[in-house]
Amino acid sequence: MKTKSKTEAKKLAKAYSHNKEYADVPIYIIYCNRSEKYYIDTNSLIRLWERLIGYYINGVFISEKNNS
Questions:
Q1: pTM of the predicted model as reported, rounded to 2 decimal places
Q2: 32 vs 6, 22, 60, 68, CA distance in Å?
Q3: Cβ pair 52, 64 in contact under 8 A
Q4: pLDDT band at residue 68 under the 50/70/90 scheme
């Protein structure tokens, strides 16, 4: 799923992380420099022109900055 704003991406990722189908599965928020959009995915594989913002797991946001 893709969105134009970081706020909307975080809302969607949080909603997905509360879904029983995605229990204990990280929902990643990825920013694409080429399309200037945010992507929500369960796959953390990113390309050179993308940046991992953070992820939600069971409704809790973990920022990529905290993991550095």
A1: 0.87
A2: 11, 23, 23, 20
A3: yes
A4: very low
**For residue 56, what are its two tokens?**
């939600």
How do beta strands 27-32 and 2-3 pair?
unpaired
Length of the chain: 68
Q: Where are the domains of the chain?
A: 2-63
Neighbours of 31 (CB within 10 A): 17
Tens-place pLDDT, residues 13-34: 999 999 999 989 999 999 999 9
| 8-state DSSP, 24 | T
Q: What are the φ/ψ torsions at residue 12 (nearest 5 degrees)? A: -65, -45
